[in-house]
Design brief:
Helix 3 packs antiparallel against helix 4 and helix 8 (166-187) packs parallel to helix 11. This protein has 291 residues and is mainly α. The chain is built from twelve helices and no strands. The protein is 68% helix and 0% strand.
Length: 291
Amino acid sequence: MGDSTHSLGKRCLAEVIGTFILVFFGCGAVHAAVLTGAQTGLWQVAIVWGVAIMAAAYVVGGISGAHINPAITIALSACGRFSWSQVLPYIAAQLSGAFLAAAVLFVVYSPFLDQREQDNGVSRGNVGSEITAMCYGEYYPNPGLDSTTPLYIKGKREQLDAMVPTVAALLIEVLGTGLLALVVFATTDEKNLPVPISRLAPVFIGLTVAILISVIAPLTQACFNPARDFGPRLFAAVAGWGKIAIPGPNGHGFFTVYILAPIVGAVLGGGLYTRLLRPSLEPDALEKARY
């Protein structure tokens, strides 16, 4: 999945731009919700993420395939739909786009970040600053929930861990990314007779992300994309949040829950479609669809 008629350099540049669009709009909505109260509910943030995916896909899909997600890139390669030799360049491009988007958001929202920390009596980089670091990397449980924010500020780690244990967070991210990959593979497969016209695939993928966020974000902030998490998280680590960003209060959680779990989920979801569902399609389904 990716137009091989374009050079690898051009496709990687497209991935930088596509991931920048995704993270700027998606994390931008998180900034607006957390720092200004601009969004009145989770669905408003979720649909922005969904539309951001649609926009990125329409802008760069014809050049790079608009993976904009290392987990999807790896899953496509594992299922024989993308070259392994291009995986690392694509991932590097995706992380770069996410990092740059986080940097821009930090510049424009910096006064609001300072004010939220001041209002809550927390110091950036210390316990409690997850309430602003969540605008970049992700945490479980979600620091944006009114019921859990006081626990973050007071550093009551055991109570927080009991709300969303690491095992639960892992399973949630594997499942969510698996469902996303299933939709990606199905809606981009020409052999799939009921597949929407290819131009509409980004719409269905974006809406899938929006509904997944609506269900999962209260628990883990709904990652599904290692670049979306690690790029901004890396920026936050060097921008003052330090250990609150990496490795974060859960220790290995930033890696196992937000990098490893999405990759496992995407490979499982892509494999489910490729190995179990796709072989059941009629060989001449595409030909029949023309009549």
